[in-house]
Amino acid sequence: MAADPLSRVFAALSDPLRRDMVARLASGDATVLELARPYEVTVQAVSKHLKVLEEAGLVSRSREAQRRPVHLEAEVFDLMTTWIERYRREAEERYRRLDDVLSSMPDEEGEQQ
Q1: How far is residue 18's CA from residue 24's CA, in Å, rounded to a whole number?
Q2: Which SUPFAM superfamilies does the annotation name (predicted)?
Q3: Which helix (H) or strand (E) holds 80?
């Protein structure tokens, strides 16, 4: 798996089942068995997916009596949001400059818009 945290997070979320698990954990903690219930995969497969999410820092596990609930670590999304927002702002600025150039060009009748 990639070494830097952002690459680990994006790699972990590249799998649709893992993205679905993250979406389900956004509404509350769940055990491995609870997470495995709707999928047609083994509990061991779900555990392997959770391990990938855990290594990416997206989830953590704790112990509550006999339960080991899985928690979503939402602060990891700040890392992704910062990265995405940077490129979204750059793209918007590029489109704004293009709009300015297009609006300063004369239209077909020779008049500027």
Answers
A1: 10
A2: Winged helix' DNA-binding domain
A3: helix 76-104
Nearest residue to 36 (alpha-carbon basis) of 53, 24, 54: 24
Kindly state the helix (H) or strand (E) to which residue 34 belongs, with its residue range.
helix 32-36
Tokens of residue 59, six digits:
């989830």
Helix axes 16-25, 43-55, angle to 10 degrees: 80
Nearest-10 crossing angle of helices 43-55, 5-12: 150
Q: Which residue has the tokens 């006999």?
A: 66
Q: Which residues of the chain have pLDDT under 50?
A: none
The pTM of this model reads: 0.78
